[in-house]
Specification:
Number of domains of chain A: 1
Shape of chain A: globular
Distance between the termini of chain A: 96 Å
Structural class of chain A: mainly alpha
CATH class of chain A: Alpha Beta
Radius of gyration of chain B: 24 Å
CATH topology of chain A: Potassium Channel Kv1.1, Chain A
Largest interface: A-B, 41 and 37 residues
Order of helices and strands of chain B: HHHEEEEEHEHEHEEHEHEEEEEEEE
Largest sheet of chain A: 3 strands, mixed
Strand order of the largest sheet of chain A: 2-1-3
Oligomer: heterodimer
Chain lengths: 179, 318
């Protein structure tokens, strides 16, 4: 026979207020809606919102154009920010060597080809989203595991010293602006 | 597969990519090009330390990477251990085309911009290697924590210059036999000199060490008396342990007014402490006390190791 506990167990439901939403337009004119908590992960966007004086009342009527980020990357970024909007602030890493484990959901999100990943990092850098930057960089850093220098050169598209020297020579040989 | 053009990324992103990499991945990456090797320090590698002790060891905050030197293969195995634990936590492979492993040490210091903190020359490093490493680090750093010199075909003038330019902050171990003319200028916390006949009374009186062990010493009873009287008068506040043995010491006369040999027979005590990472013991010492209340144990008798040698052990109670 089960015994009723003296203290009742209360099922705590997460209380979510009606979110304030903002509209973002990517460089190729795709429109995205993002919640206030999520957009705060981007320092650039949040500074913009604050400076433009956008409020709950006028936010949806004033879409924010982001010229440096295309729709594909913006979709990934919005997904990421919505997923992580309630995350607790993380302590600053003091010992960087793989101190955190990349969550599986994020690893899946970032399983994209190298060109897309490259563009996503540029977008993340522009929008100043530290957590996404950490995660993208982690994915790129993980490519170096157990690789020879030659393999690393191919993976990261690194020119050889001879190629760098040739490039430098051709740059110095080419006539300057005065002809 | 399209490469991910690392060097096309903003410098902040490159730094974030490098930071989670371990030292071995960074060293492999540093060999892809000169341009890349100049960026490796962005991973905050200056916080790491390198030491040489049969292996090249890179110490990070939590882990150490022990590079096992091989002179035949184009790669080296690296054992990763958690600091404070000798058990292997993992293995890495470092690719290094050159057979010149000294150039690997120099490469590590150059790309990581970190100090080399300990060198034990051992049997893997000859004097030319040692000289090459020291010349390289002398322009980069002014001190080193530990230096251990095993017998080497060394030039004393070069060594004197090294001692002048690089301060040894923690421990100096000299197993090499230096000539009596050797001029020593340094003041580490702990010294062990196996053939210490060159370490004269001036060196002893000028020392500020916490522990000193001098074997095959040329010091005499008169020298010991001079030094210990100064200690009694309050000098050498750092001194914790002193052990001197040599054939010029004898059991005739007195030390600090005490008849020789000095040994507590009635109620012998064993005092011990870990000093500079080594357990130091004084067994059967006679307790003495300075006017300011500082106590010490002194023992002086025949050396067990060499029949014609006499050994003094002096242990300050801290």
């Amino acid at each position: 026979m089960s015994v009723e506990p003296e203290v009742p167990i209360v099922q705590v439901e997460e209380v979510r207020e009606n979110p304030v939403l903002y509209k973002i337009i990517s460089s190729d004119n795709h429109v995205f809606t993002i919640s206030e908590h999520a957009v705060k992960l981007s320092k650039t966007l949040w500074d913009l919102i604050t400076n433009l004086g956008l409020t709950a009342e006028n936010a949806l009527d004033n879409p924010i154009p982001v010229e440096n980020v295309n729709g594909k990357n913006m979709e990934t970024i919005v997904q990421f920010c919505e997923r992580h909007k309630y995350d607790e602030e993380e302590p600053e890493y003091t010992n960087y060597i793989r101190e955190f484990v990349l969550p599986e959901w994020d690893r899946q999100l970032l399983s994209i080809d190298n060109e897309e990943l490259f563009q996503l990092i540029l977008a993340t850098n522009y929008l100043d989203i530290q957590k996404l930057m950490d995660y993208c960089c982690r994915v790129i850093g993980d490519m170096a595991k157990d690789k020879t220098p030659e393999e690393l050169r191919i993976i990261y598209g690194i020119p050889t010293d001879a190629e760098d020297d040739a490039l430098e020579r051709s740059a110095s040989d080419s006539p300057g602006p005065s002809g | 597969m399209i490469p991910l053009k690392l060097l096309g990324l903003p410098i902040l992103a490159i730094a974030e990519i490098l930071k989670p990499m371990d030292p071995i991945e960074l060293l492999n990456l540093s060999q892809t090009s000169r341009k890349v090797s100049r960026l490796i320090f962005l991973a905050n590698t200056h916080r790491w330390e390198v030491s040489f002790d049969k292996y090249i060891i890179i110490h990070t905050k939590s882990y150490s990477y022990k590079i096992i030197i091989t002179q035949t293969a184009k790669w080296m195995s690296v054992m990763m251990t958690k600091n404070g634990n000798s058990e292997a936590k993992g293995w890495r492979t470092l690719y290094w085309k050159s057979r010149d492993w000294i150039s690997l040490i120099l490469h590590i210091i150059r790309v990581f911009k970190c100090p080399i903190t300990k060198i034990r020359t051992g049997y893997s490093m000859n004097f030319q290697d040692f000289h090459r490493v020291m010349e390289f680090i002398m322009v980069r750093q002014s001190e080193i924590k530990l230096l251990e010199l095993t017998p080497l075909e060394l030039e004393e003038k070069v060594l004197e210059r090294i001692f002048k330019k690089i301060r040894i902050t923690d421990t100096l171990i000299v197993l090499h036999k230096l000539s009596p003319k050797f001029c020593y200028q340094n003041n580490p916390k702990h010294i062990y000199i196996k053939h210490s006949s060159w370490f004269g009374i001036r060196n002893l009186l000028d020392s500020t060490c916490a522990s000193m062990e001098l074997s095959w010493s040329s010091l005499t009873n008169r020298h010991l008396n001079m030094f210990l009287k100064k200690w009694m008068a309050g000098k050498y506040p750092n001194l914790h342990y002193l052990k001197i043995s040599g054939e010029k010491l004898n059991l005739k006369g007195k030390i600090l007014g005490m008849e020789l040999p000095i040994e507590e027979i009635e109620d012998p005590w064993v005092v011990e402490d870990t000093i500079g990472g080594t357990v130091r013991i004084c067994d059967g010492g006679v307790k003495i006390q300075r006017p300011d209340g500082v106590r010490a144990y002194i023992h002086m008798d025949k050396s067990e190791a060499f029949p014609f040698h006499v050994k003094l052990t002096f242990f300050v109670w801290k």
